[in-house]
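Whiteboard transcription, Tuesday session. T.W. wrote the structure tokens on the left side:
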């Protein structure tokens, strides 16, 4: 059977506690806050051929489930965590080629603040930073920023559209040839090539120009994970890369085709928009060992159940303690948070009870279990159907063992099939992302 064209791998991460309960016991559970664990990890990923490491973020300690932070702080999935934006600097300083994507919310940043920070990061990473544009999904986050509640879902996207307009104008406020450093004339920068932006809009005002010079990529790589129709449009119009978790190969293909269609309708070349699907491979030396490991993963029913409840509470602000957990998910459930994820989960749960469904739920588009070669073959087959562009390895919470299984098991197996990069041909993240 012929192989798919080469595709890409990214890593979904955050700056939170690595796996501390089910992995080889080490010191990482307490020492991760110094960032060194993630430095080791990003170096391994670069060596193994990952295109990027993405760092998710949120801005609160969730306490929705039963009105307390107990379940969240017991499992430590969304809190505690560190702000990924400053961590980009340290990860970039330890590497040369890999892209590093940090999440920041358009609902809570001001465009000038964000544009300046990501311009700074683009400089110090030498053109390897990406911004995961999110609109946030929690009232608790809004309350940390002085609001009572989050603006409504589609209004947040309307704000995000204007936000991008302002950040783009600010990033373009320095022409590429504005810096002269001309000893003869005595001019460092040409004042005629540094422009105010004078933005006065519905949500934002900013005079500009930025006080940081134009960065290597001009604009950071824009990453987005919109799933709702409004979110998909936003992503198709603005993003270089998308993250999503559609169900199965058909769902992946439909999502990618839809995004490419939307990108074309905004006058963009669809090949400039790369789609990444979340996977959580379970890998061991042999298929049989991997199957046993997979069963052991699912057998941690109470643990998985609690983690999923905490996850729903955090990202959807839905308090499942109010429902009968031994009955199916209520029909009329809605959220002002991650709307498309709620729909996906509803489909995954099917008619199962909340308890049954959640105790066997894994964040993934495809179930991948086997030796490195088996999983590489499964990814190969999936990509032939879907048509491109890459997978986002989830594996949360992360452990050194899991990273090694991917970087020293799966990646070499993919490279042997010619499916994964073995080197980076360009200096900047966007160029590497568009290179095939
Ligand atoms: C892989 C993935 C990563 C995401 N990372 C974040 C994140 O770090 N922070 C956040 O607030 N939302 C995150 N989201 C949520 C999305 O930004 C978005 O709100 C969600 O997919 C629902 O889409 P919708 O708002 O268009 O319904 C993520 C979603 C996915 C699928």
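and on the right, the sequence the group agreed on:
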């Amino acid at each position: 059977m012929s192989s798919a064209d080469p595709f890409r791998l990214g890593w979904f991460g955050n700056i939170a506690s690595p796996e501390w309960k089910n992995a080889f016991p080490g010191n990482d559970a307490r020492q991760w806050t110094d960032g060194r664990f993630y430095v080791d990890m990003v170096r391994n990923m670069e060596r193994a051929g990952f295109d990027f490491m993405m760092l998710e973020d949120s801005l609160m300690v969730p306490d929705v489930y039963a009105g307390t932070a107990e379940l969240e702080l017991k499992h430590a999935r969304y809190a505690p965590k560190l702000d990924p934006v400053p961590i980009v600097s340290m990860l970039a300083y330890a590497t040369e080629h890999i892209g590093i994507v940090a999440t920041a919310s358009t609902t809570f940043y001001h465009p000038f603040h964000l544009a300046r920070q990501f311009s700074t990061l683009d400089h110090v990473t030498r053109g390897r930073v990406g911004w995961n544009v999110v609109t946030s999904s929690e009232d608790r986050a809004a309350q940390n920023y002085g609001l009572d509640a989050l603006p409504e879902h589609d209004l947040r996207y309307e704000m995000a559209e204007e936000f991008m307009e302002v950040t783009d104008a600010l990033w373009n406020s320095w022409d590429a040839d504005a810096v002269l450093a001309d000893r003869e004339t005595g001019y460092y920068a040409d004042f005629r090539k540094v422009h105010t932006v004078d933005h006065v809009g519905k949500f934002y005002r900013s005079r500009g120009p930025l006080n940081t010079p134009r960065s290597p990529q001009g604009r950071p790589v824009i990453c987005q994970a919109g799933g709702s129709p409004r979110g998909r449009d936003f992503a198709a119009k603005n993003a270089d890369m998308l993250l999503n978790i559609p169900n199965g190969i058909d769902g992946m293909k439909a999502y990618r085709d839809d995004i490419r269609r939307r990108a074309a309708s905004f006058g963009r070349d669809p090949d400039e928009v790369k789609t990444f699907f979340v996977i959580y491979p379970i890998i061991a030396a042999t298929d049989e060992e991997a199957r046993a490991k997979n069963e052991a993963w699912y057998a941690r029913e109470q643990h998985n159940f609690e983690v999923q409840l905490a996850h729903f509470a955090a990202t959807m602000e839905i308090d499942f303690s109010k429902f009968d957990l031994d009955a199916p998910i209520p029909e009329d459930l809605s959220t002002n948070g991650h709307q498309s994820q709620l729909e996906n989960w509803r489909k995954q749960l099917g008619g199962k009870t909340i308890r049954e469904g959640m105790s066997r739920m894994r964040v993934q588009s495809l179930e991948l279990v086997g030796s490195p070669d088996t999983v590489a073959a499964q990814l190969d087959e999936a990509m032939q159907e879907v048509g491109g562009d890459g997978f986002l390895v989830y594996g949360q919470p992360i452990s050194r063992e899991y990273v090694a299984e991917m970087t020293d098991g799966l990646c070499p197996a993919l490279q042997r099939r010619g499916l994964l990069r073995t080197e980076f041909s360009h200096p900047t993240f966007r160029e590497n992302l568009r290179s095939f």
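Someone added at the bottom: DSSP finds 16 helices and 14 strands in the chain.
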